[in-house]
Amino acid sequence: MNAATITIVDETASGERVNSFTLDSLTEHPTVRELIRARIYQEVQDYNQNLPEVFNGLVQPADSEKLLNGYRRGKVKPINWETQFKKACEAFEKNGFFILIADRQAESLDESFEVKVDTKVSFVKLVQLVGG
Known about the structure:
Strand order of the largest sheet: 2-1-8-6-7
Number of domains: 1
Strand content: 25-35%
Largest sheet: 5 strands, mixed
Order of helices and strands: EEHEEEHEEE
Helix content: 10-25%
Radius of gyration: 14 Å
Number of helices: 2
Shape: globular
């Protein structure tokens, strides 16, 4: 089986697109939890390779300051993807953001969805995710 590509779009509650990238899906029917895990893993790996001053991810890492388009780290050091993944799952469950999969809102972390050739997933932040 070939891995399908998922287009990830970060949007504001008003519909403004602030970030976009692609993820390779490992299965045809991933759960929302697996989607969040893959997204967090990729964005943390990308950050850790270059260690820029600003982290532009889904949830705020520890020891960082919220900026308009990202989080400034106090010390530029690697981020633990597992910690970020836990924060992201908690934020999803507390309605810190919602996920639209092909324009349908995901209801739970354990919900699965079908990955098609042109699957688009939007992460919409509703509130500032201070501290996750």
